[in-house]
Amino acid sequence: MQAITPPLKTNRKNNSNFKKFFLLIFLIGFISSSLHSQLLVAKSIGKNSDSSKLGFGAFIFWEIPVNDIGNRSVMIELMDLAFFPPKSDDAHTVIGYLSIRLGYRYIFSQETKTGFYIEPSAGYCRVVSNEDRNDGKAIYGDGIALATEVGYTVEVGQNGNSLNFGVKYETDRAGSKTTCSSIAFRASYSFHMFRKGRD
């Protein structure tokens, strides 16, 4: 009689919950009254960064103004992710990150939403690396994300829409083999579907 082998324990349940969590955040962002479209181009810096090509990614955020003008805002980065393609199949390097951060945007203009800004932020990150592939799989680590962005925003139209260009430095501390630092150029257009124009 053939022995019955018990099924191997896996972390499928944890991965499933993780995916559902990020799907929920993603959907909440898109059904909010403030919709945002944004892209980024990133360069990995630091350890083994010369093994990566120029990276790319996307991000989505909520902007919550804290004054009437809207030049001071709490920023909730619901999802900020980037992928860094390795230069070769045997390159050992970080291949991507995903972070969720809370920040504060300060636009230096005192009267409008147009002008230079600075935005420090902090939160959670997950970093994926192919540095240790003994079992043929990439590894990942969870940790703390710290970022600072400087840029320029232009108010477009009368509905609070804005066009933003920024340069962001981010460091994601997620373990010795899954720590990532990067510089990214970010461009976004924020438009508000349900906000009426100013009188």
Could you please describe the fold and organization of this structure?
The chain is mainly beta and 199 residues long. 10% of the residues lie in helices and 54% in strands. It contains one helix and eight strands. It has one helix at 12-31; strands spanning 34-45, 55-65, 72-83, 94-107, 115-129, 139-156, 161-173, 180-192. The protein has an eight-stranded antiparallel barrel with strand order 1-2-3-4-5-6-7-8. A hairpin with a 7-residue loop joins strand 4 and strand 5. Residues 5-11 and 193-199 have low confidence and may be disordered.
Rg over C-alpha atoms, rounded to the nearest angstrom? 20 Å
Average pLDDT, all residues: 80
Order of helices and strands: HEEEEEEEE
Our measurement of the CA-to-CA distance between the termini, rounded to an integer number of angstroms, reads 83 Å
Number of helices: 1
Outline: elongated
Summarize the structure.
The chain is mostly beta strands and 199 residues long.
Topology:
Elements: H1 12-31, E1 34-45, E2 55-65, E3 72-83, E4 94-107, E5 115-129, E6 139-156, E7 161-173, E8 180-192
Quickly list its features.
1 helix, disordered C terminus, 199 residues, 54% strand, mainly beta
